[in-house]
Amino acid sequence: MTSSIDRMRAAWHFFLNGWRDWDQTASFVPSSRFLVDALVQGAELHRARSVVELGTGTGTVTEKLLAAMRPDARLFGVEIDGPLLDATARRLPDSRLVAIHGSAADLGTHLAAAGHSGKVDAIVSCLGMSLLPPDLRDAILDSAARVLAPGGVFVQYGYLHAHVIVYSTTRGFSQFHLGRYLGRYFSEQRRQIVVPNLPPAEVLVCHGPVPRDISEAA
Q1: Cis ω on the peptide bond leading into residue 83 (within 30° of 0)?
Q2: Can you tell me whether residue 99 is helix, strand or coil?
């Protein structure tokens, strides 16, 4: 019963955040099960011992990641919204989950503070890249590419309509092509379209982090 209440409270909090800070949340409702499944399947969890989730939100993706992960793996859930993170941690009392309250732009610092050394095997991003301020978006991707192991995987979703039009409350109308953007940071991509999601989405599974100096010159 307590878990259900926490889930409902988190969903309502998420919805309110969509009104209060659209550019950060980029949605009024959590991802559909179709999108969640595509994200989890892309993360190659059968071999991952260290996984990072960027933007745990209401824990919809977090729960599925934990269910698919190895028993000896750890999931570092990074969320900037403290109340949402607390609700997820209460609802998912799994010893493999390490809840991190902070910005995804500081992954190296956060992971070190959580006791993790070295690179990570997989990063699943649930952040709304199309609406993030460009400087913050670049800082997050640079941070992710730095901590990802050479053979690791980075998974990111985006909404298909962003290729044509996206609206920011601070920057107005623009376009954002997720694949081209991620190409600055990763040398390989695999794309999956998720039509049943509302709105329809794409999931990009990326490998081969590009060295930072090359990325900045792109």
Answers
A1: no
A2: strand
Burial of 165 (0-12, 13-18, 19+ CB in 10 A): exposed
Q: How far apart are CA 104 and CA 123, in angstroms?
A: 11
What tokens does 69 get?
A: 């992960």
Q: Residue 36's Cα: distance from chain center in Å?
A: 11
Q: Which residues pair with residue 157 across a beta bridge?
A: 203
> What backbone torsions phi and psi does residue 121 show, to the nearest 5 degrees?
-85, -30
116: helix, strand or coil: coil
Contact present, 199 and 216 (Cβ < 8 Å): no
pLDDT in tens, 166-210: 766 676 677 899 999 999 999 999 999 999 998 899 999 999 998
Regarding beta strands 166-168 and 172-174, do their DSSP bridges make them parallel or antiparallel, or are they unpaired? antiparallel
| pLDDT at 210 (0 to 100) | 86
Q: How far apart are the first and last CA of the chain?
A: 51
